[in-house]
Amino acid sequence: MILLTKSPLAGDLCALTFSICVALSLLRCFEETARRGVFDQKLNRKLVHITFGLQFMLCWPLFSSGSQGAFMAAVVPGVNIVKVLLIGYGIVKDEATVKSMSRFGDHRELIRGPLYYVCTITLCCTVYWRTSPIAIAAMCNLCAGDGIADIIGRRFGKKKIPYNTDKSFAGSIAMAVAGFIASVGYMYYFSMFGFVEKKSKMVVGFFVVSLMSAFVESLPISTKLDDNLTVPLANVLLGTLVFL
């Protein structure tokens, strides 16, 4: 644990405050870029998708071990679940958030992909936490893998996948590579704090899970439902078989 204090609760509260400030600052930054039109709306959305979860994982070592730290950390995405629901159902008006998180500027989109996204992060905190390779794989394939897949697919995805013309070979390959690299990177990061042990078997497991995540993301069902839902489910199911 980085934050040294005599009281674990006080340390977790400090970690929570810091994590919320970082998360809100990041979201505010992308809300501003969306409002000013700095990036294409779809690109802006994917940059939020990639960075929010990955930067939040960087904050996990600040929290204490055990269920208290896990549940305190889960407050960060939990706050965003409430925010997404309020905006998605039109109870609260926030055009900047809608622009930064939606594909087409419809606030109702937030109660699908963005909601599944923050629910996945909350689940990884409360159920798996930082000692589980399942959490690492699920977060990295959802954030880095799925996010990079869309960016690369739109730019270089001329060769479409036969069973789903909405997806491309370039995007799927990029997803597998990005998810795998991010997973291994966070394995090394968490091993610095003694949360996981660096193992070649774990690296192989990450490779298998990333490949299968890319395959699941390319299926028509992921287009019909939402890959923010199907990819995490695939990671949890396959990760349970591979890592446990």
Automatic annotation (TrEMBL):
Keyword Membrane set for record: yes
CC annotations in GO: chloroplast membrane
Segments crossing the lipid bilayer: 6-27, 47-63, 69-92, 113-129, 169-190, 202-221
Localization per record: Plastid, Chloroplast membrane
Keywords: Chloroplast, Kinase, Membrane, Plastid, Transferase, Transit peptide, Transmembrane, Transmembrane helix
InterPro entries hit by this protein: Phytol/farnesol_kinase
Gene Ontology molecular function, alphabetical: kinase activity
Membrane topology: Multi-pass membrane protein
Predominant cellular place of this UniProt entry's protein: plastid
Family the UniProt entry places it in: Belongs to the polyprenol kinase family.
Record's protein name: Phytol kinase
Protein source organism: Lactuca saligna (Willowleaf lettuce)
